[in-house]
Specification:
Shape: globular
Low-confidence stretches: 1-22
Strand order of the largest sheet: 5-4-3-9-25
Oligomer: single chain
Number of strands: 27
Number of helices: 15
Mean pLDDT: 89
Distance between the termini: 47 Å
Largest sheet: 5 strands, parallel
Amino acid sequence: VKLHWQQLNGRSIIEEGHIAMKRSESDTNGLRVCVIGAGAAGLTAIKQLKDQGITNIECFEKEAEEGGIFLYGKDKNGVYDNAALTISNYLMAFSDMPPTGHRFHWHHTEYRDYLRQYTHKFDLAKHISFGTTVLSVAGGPGHWNVVVREPDGEASDRGVFDAIAVCSGAHQAVNQPKIPGLETFNGEVLHSSSYKNNVSFAGKHCVCVGLGESAADIVREISDVASSTVLAMRSYPYLIPRLARPFHANPLGCSSDSFTSHLRHDLLNVPLGHYRRIRHFINRVMCTFAALLYFLLPWLGSDGLQPSEDAFNQDATENFIDKGTRSSPVSNSLIYAWCNWSGQGERGQKFACKNVTFVDNVVAGRIRTNVSGIARVEGETVFFQDGCQEKCNCLVFCTGYRDVFPFLQGNVGGKDVPLAVPEGNVRRLYKHIFHPDIGQSMAWIGFVRPSTGGIPACAEMASRYFALLLSGKRQLPKDVAQLTAQDYELDSRYYRLSPDVKTLVGYKDWMDSMADLVGCQVSLWKYVLQPKLFVHLCVGSLLPAQYRLAGPGAMPETARAAVLSVPVAPTGTQSCAEAFRAWQRHLDPRKLLAW
């Protein structure tokens, strides 16, 4: 029985933001679900739907292969030649197919291979129509009409779907700032989305605008061959080297995201309003106990072996802090200074740039910086707000993307509600996934960007919840509109130093809140009698695999093996010190008042 948006038993499907869309498990196979995009988010959406018995899935992918932004093409928006991931493989991987062996940062081709393996292992390709672009989605909850452009260029009405997963990605439309006089510029203007390598920049005078993780690579590569390179920013970034940071004593050369743990992030990256009183208190006790255990019995967390290679497969004895970037007093001081000038401490209020490969070129003078912002452009001169000016014949905008969904058309059913992300801001969606006025029959998946951790793991968790909702095993909260408004206010204030990154969330806080909805919470106290696993869970990395220890879709043996396979990065002494600092944060007077 298909549900239509108009009426259900004489009343509207949309009722105070809560969708009255209930199905028995026997109805699941009758569901017809459309997935838009076959990047990482689209692939895991198909997989999680199949796990819940939903098999009538049609995925439309405009490219000839799966991979999304990681599908390389010389004339295609996406990764550049030398792109290496900012997150290590164990945090980028899906929880239902964790990697094995050495923890390192994948090159983009290696991650693409991982996605291919994932597609093959779970037989996902049979659900995907490649070379097919979605032209329009219209209708209302439970009744979505989809029109596509087929590989032959012809438009085709693919009929009505019960649910839609929008997995089109956040890299569809470039964000190019409006700069006075840009129309008079005599040189070349390009966006980082079209960058592949630095060959065409040799001998040019370049101004690179903006600094994110891709921009850090791009400005460095350009400065290696350009006559002059200026990095234009409006504020200093918060920098995190991808290898164990210079202010950690740990000598392993491990990935810096190894320090993302329950111990460190329980209260570090949690907006005050998300504070969960008793739960955080119990977790704090558990993490402190685990830190003491690890201090007394180091073998519980590490085998004590020194790896020969770091997380970029470089000689571990060479003291690298990033790919091809050695630790040095001058570089480290610059990183410290920029972090201090970024306007925050270590409280997650600003998006962290996890790439410092460009720092050596700043120290060497090959990259000059201006942090006042561009005032205007005249001819081949760029004028800055502080009065400085630079000769320029090549402007490179590393200014990110806008979230756009041109295929969403009209209003939601018979209501006066546009079929769109409210205000173009995914924080207006419940958990960045569900429109309060549409409900569970349309999900935006892949629009959660954790301050640490990987986007694919978050997309997987969103997909698990979406699949459980469609199968009738879960329901959206009845006060979903109110909860969405509360989260919007909290996160907008908390991440106020990165106002343009609407997708930004705290990794642990968001994943734990989703685990509550899915039913796969990691209850640390349950593992006290398994001390090795207990220590790894509390003070080791926050791997996505831990959310497969229990609950729907549990894979306890696979999850346990993945968690135990990665050594705990901090030392026992560091863990105890972090536990002490965490108690100081926990006993913050503002949090005590929340009781």
